[in-house]
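Amino Acid Chain and Its Fold in Token Form
===========================================
Scope: a single protein chain, as residues and as a discrete description of its fold.
Amino acid sequence: labelled as such and written in the usual single-letter residue code.
Position: the record begins directly beneath this header, with no further notes in between.
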Amino acid sequence: MLDGEHWLVARLSRPAFEIERLLTRLGAASGSFITAWNPRSEAASPVENATAAAALAAEILACGWRALPHRGVGDDPAWPAEEGWFLLDLDEATATNLAAAYGQNAYVRIERGRVARLVETRWLTGSDRSPI
């Protein structure tokens, strides 16, 4: 995620001190990295990704959630970066349902004082939680 001119990085199971400082500065206790790109981890076309991303952005705006743009970059260089949102103080159940509603298998969540962790959605867990 870009904070001014400085990239902030989160890696699973590792402290993210810069993001923790950002959360503190913004008065937030947590953040969830959510994208609408490449549902179910299957490559979508640029048009499909743009359409899904616009729908997610519209939902975030309509719900009045605080969010910052981010670019998710995984460890596999063959998988392209995905544009998304870092949603501040969205409770975990709502964040999980939102990610599932956009076909995401999982998303990354950070809470102040804790390491970044992967939260699986119903697409991976097989649970019957319904999307928003």
User: Anything to note?
Assistant: The mean pLDDT is 90. The longest strand covers residues 82-88.
